[in-house]
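Open question from group meeting: does this chain pack into something compact, or does most of it stay loose? Before anyone orders reagents, we agreed to write out a predicted structure and look at it together. Recording both the input and the output here so the notebook holds the full record.
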Amino acid sequence: MPTDRENILMALREKPLKIYDVMKRANVANEEACQSLLLKMRDEGSVKFDIHKGRWLIA
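Structure tokens returned:
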């Protein structure tokens, strides 16, 4: 069973996504949990946030 972190990375492999699209594709129900996980992953260097487009992408 893949974790939320693995689901998010799989969803972002296809293309950069906005937070709601990440939540839908990764099947994460809670927006705050998804956002905090994305921020942790950004701090670790596995994902980036494009501030101009408002999309998350793989680093």
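Observations to bring back to the group:
The chain has a mean pLDDT of 93.
The first strand starts at residue 47 and ends at 50.
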